[in-house]
Amino acid sequence: MIYEKTAKFRDDFLWGSASAAYQVEGAWDKDGKGESVWDVYTRIPGTTFKETDGKVAVDHYHRYKEDVALMAEMGLKAYRFSIAWTRIYPDGKTELNEAGLQFYEQLIDELIAHNITPVVTLYHWDLPQHLQDLYGGWESREIIEDFNRYCVTLFKRFGDKVKHWVSLNEQNIFMTLGYVTAMHPPAVKSHKRMLQANHIANVANATVIESFKQYVPDGMIGPSFAYGPVYPYSCDPQDILSAENAEDLNNYWWLDVYCKGEYPTFAFKYYERLGIAPVIEEGDLELLARAKPDFIGINYYQTGTVASNPIDGVGPSEVMNNTGKKGTAKENGLPGVFKNVKNPNLETTNWDWAIDPTGLRVGLRRLTSRYNLPILITENGLGEFDQLEENDVVNDSHRIDYLSAHVLACKEAVTDGVDLLGYCTWSFTDLLSWLNGYQKRYGFVYVDREENDEKELRRIKKNSFYWYQNVIESNGEDL
Ligand code: BGP
């Protein structure tokens, strides 16, 4: 559908930006904070790009007022950030750390004082290391109670001020990278263990959603899913079937559980045949069916294109482009099921991520037709090298082009009938990319630091800062 005139964004549209505690805060051991699995994992040589870590990150912990002032200057309507579980319960379960609660209380108050809606993520991957050591983290059902205790503490403390909450960030990514490709902690390579841990995470997610309804009945909660809609490489029926396989295994395996409380049939049968389907305990399915999210949060970066893959074909890749050298990503897939291929119609970033604004519209429509829930875009953005030029200029026209095409796709999706609550870019300031260091930048605000040199961590507004300011001011009319 090509529109001559598109609909307008709602008046209370949440023009936002997102971050995560480990990627911005630093202060990794301040004020009673416990160690997270990322604090520990990044100490293992070779796990991250040039051994980068979040010990200092962009020091948001100490500079949050300066950062919020920049958000206010831009006119940002919403700021999505995550709370570090280890600041609230240093060992994940026993003693509550008041200093941790105070830090987030101050941040929330500072945002509200500047008319910025806080959107709080409960879990953005920084699991308390103690829980990993004690019972294997997400592999034990003990985590359900511990996670719920931590979340209820936050609901009680902040529920009157914070009405937008994200439960788990990208469960599909932290499970797949943590337990299949072994690129994230706990760096396990076992599909079976992944599926079991993932089921436990589903139950934890549902438990917390139920608690939320009790403690913050006038709020909204949903998970943030890393959504990559899938295209078939061609109209060869084998490619079409491969795309169906990939949609079920990569997307609906999570989304159907969140929104319908059930696993997709084909995917479950497939895992059962392999003898690796998760063990589902009595009561789990009833809970999953009850605990519906209020919205679907999606983190959208790219679509995937798949072709058929022979039974002796390519398997999961352990090589990722984390250097920014275009063309270094390796082909990967599931033998006999599908393989990921390059889409010849799409440009890619220097990290080999396909640039596809239309794919965002396609995805928003698919989700709306399948689940009919409001959608909040909780992340979208372009990771690129940016150059700090003379007189503090950062000309990131590549980012402006990327974001403006994606906002336009959102507008078209709204015209199509999608109930879109808001759009958060990734990210507001530059920050640490988990596996790609500091050189892969996403922000509207440049932070002057390098991989292993923190310099002064000076904040410098990029050209995209002024562009987004204008987008917000015009409620998305002026792109
Ligand atoms: C998402 C994560 C974010 C962020 C973003 C960019 O998967 O939720 O935390 O890192 O992707 O990814 P990357 O840093 O790998 O470029």
Automatic annotation (TrEMBL):
Question: What protein family does this chain belong to?
Answer: Belongs to the glycosyl hydrolase 1 family.
Write out the GO cellular component annotations. Answer: cytosol
Q: Name one GO biological process term.
A: carbohydrate catabolic process
Q: What is this protein called?
A: Glycosyl hydrolase
Source taxon at top rank: Bacteria
**Catalytic residue positions:** E379 (nucleophile)
Lineage of this protein's species? Bacteria, Bacillati, Bacillota, Bacilli, Lactobacillales
The alphabetical list of record keywords is:
Glycosidase, Hydrolase
Query: Which species is this record about?
Result: Enterococcus aquimarinus
The UniProt entry, under Gene3D superfamilies, shows: Glycosidases
Query: GO: which molecular function terms?
Result: beta-glucosidase activity
Return the InterPro entries for the record. Answer: GH, GH_1_N_CS, Glyco_hydro_1, Glyco_hydro_1_AS
